[in-house]
């Protein structure tokens, strides 16, 4: 566990740190919600590609069903001290229709290519509209590092 940063980072430093984590992390928690069935949260592998988060799941999964009904999602990087929360709207791309560069990059990162699987898979693409980042209590103020799709700082 990292020692708390009592000084705090600037908005630009936080934004840069989140972008670095998006390029290096493997998992992200995906929160979706169905209008009648309520919230659902699951960890998925993800790829940061062309300023978007790309994930893949079964075409009939609760995540995919929820996104079809309500595309607004929240993504959380897996660290309760080094918090990174992203909000946006998910777009679904059937595995056979995912843009080639994104599909190739996903397969290259994970050694698994959903496009070659028998079962139906969909890719979720989320372009963040809002990003929040903070380290503990000292950085709660000023935690928004992206607003309306524009990185701050």
Automatic annotation (TrEMBL):
Residues 17-135 form the Pyridoxamine 5'-phosphate oxidase N-terminal domain. The keyword GTP-binding does not apply. GO terms for molecular function: coenzyme F420 binding; oxidoreductase activity, acting on the CH-CH group of donors. It comes from the Bacteria. One of its GO terms (cellular component) is cytosol. Keywords: Oxidoreductase. This is Pyridoxamine 5'-phosphate oxidase.
